[in-house]
TrEMBL record:
Name of this protein: Ribosome production factor 1
Gene3D superfamilies listed in its UniProt record: Probable brix-domain ribosomal biogenesis protein
Keyword rRNA processing part of the UniProt annotation: yes
Keyword rRNA processing among UniProt keywords: yes
Purpose: May be required for ribosome biogenesis.
Domain of life of the organism encoding this protein: Eukaryota
Annotated compartments: Nucleus, Nucleolus
Gene Ontology MF annotations: rRNA primary transcript binding
Record Pfam families: Brix
GO terms (BP aspect): maturation of 5.8S rRNA; maturation of LSU-rRNA
Keyword terms, alphabetized: Ribosome biogenesis, rRNA processing
Recorded GO CC terms: nucleolus; preribosome, large subunit precursor
Length: 323
């Protein structure tokens, strides 16, 4: 007979809940019945949303009433603007940094003495998706050549690259047929960066994509690479592209760093009028996360590391970023 009593109890309980507002010390998690707890939690969320909306309307009315005398809108708190200060953040006018950058491994590119020549290769016997990704990457980076590696060790590839005047080596690694890692090695003397790769979208998977990229040299945009480590990584990416973009091609390769994730996008833009610009994504797109930066060329055993990402030691605060 207990079932019958329980059946009629639910609507009555809901009606009682309608009348009762939560007392200040009450916690929804104290309710033992799962369905009822879920129902009450939804009610509480709804109440919160209503209050938030009412406050927003009230603030808007106050601002409209004050007109020009309205106080400036407060800047919202974000993880980025509450970032923990990093002592290696680079001041644009720092002479020491300027000297380092004029004498580092990438200086010949920025002085236009060296023309980049890139070899893009893969892990052993790549599958379809990785192959297509490498082909599309080679259309983004001018003067790049794809080589499918069949059992040849990286240690043996590097001397051959140097002998043939390649300036950089990109290795795309994969796991279960999906590209999941990128090694970027600057030849002949390094450095070498290891990245974890995620969110890879090939050209055909991008909505409203533009026509195939042209042969023009793209412009390169590097956003938010502020620390010394970030500068090194940004210069590595910049030195993949020739330093004389052909603006007639209207193509832009963007490396955008946000919270230590580097988002890559490739766009074409068009000036619709003096003020309006239309952009169209060409693809591919992917996201990188730096795992280590190594001096010299690729050497997993005896390599000297400038920086390694150690999660337990480094990720102590959500607002601490390294690039």
């Amino acid at each position: 007979g207990g079932d019958g009593a329980g059946g009629g109890g639910a609507p009555a309980a809901a009606a009682a809940a309608e009348r009762v507002l939560f007392p200040p010390t009450f916690s929804v998690s104290e309710i033992k019945n799962k369905q009822r707890r879920h129902f009450m939690f939804q009610r509480w969320k709804q109440q919160q949303r209503k209050e938030k909306l009412a406050n927003r309307k009230k603030r808007r009315k106050e601002r409209e009433a004050l007109g020009d005398q309205a106080p400036p809108k407060p800047v919202p708190k974000t993880i980025e603007n509450q970032r923990v200060y990093d002592e290696t953040t680079v001041d644009p006018n720092d002479e020491e940094v300027a000297f380092d950058e004029s004498t580092d491994e990438f200086a010949p590119y920025f002085n236009r003495q060296t023309i980049p020549k890139i070899l893009i290769t893969t892990s052993d016997r790549p599958r379809g998706r990785t192959v297509r990704f490498c082909e599309q990457l080679s259309t983004v980076i001018p003067n790049s050549h794809v080589y499918y590696r069949r059992g040849l060790a990286l240690k043996r590839i590097i001397p051959q690259c140097i002998a043939r005047d390649f300036t950089d080596l990109i290795v795309i690694n994969e796991d279960r047929k999906i590209p999941n890692g990128l090694v970027l090695s600057h030849l002949p003397d390094g450095p070498t960066a290891h990245f974890r790769m995620s969110s890879v979208r090939l050209r055909k998977e991008i909505k409203r994509k533009g026509k195939e990229p042209t042969q023009h040299v793209p412009e390169v945009i590097l956003n938010n690479f502020t620390t010394r480590l970030g500068h090194s990584v940004g210069r590595m990416f910049a030195s993949l592209f020739p330093h004389d973009p052909q603006f007639i091609g209207r193509q832009v390769a963007t490396f955008h760093n946000q919270r230590d994730y580097i988002f890559f996008r490739f766009h074409r833009y068009i000036f619709k009028s003096e003020k309006k610009v239309g952009i169209q994504e060409l693809g591919p797109r992917f996201t990188l996360k730096l795992r280590s930066l190594q001096k010299g060329t690729f050497d997993s055993k005896f390599g000297e590391y400038e920086w390694i990402h150690k999660r337990r030691e480094m990720d102590t605060s959500r607002r601490k970023f390294h690039l």
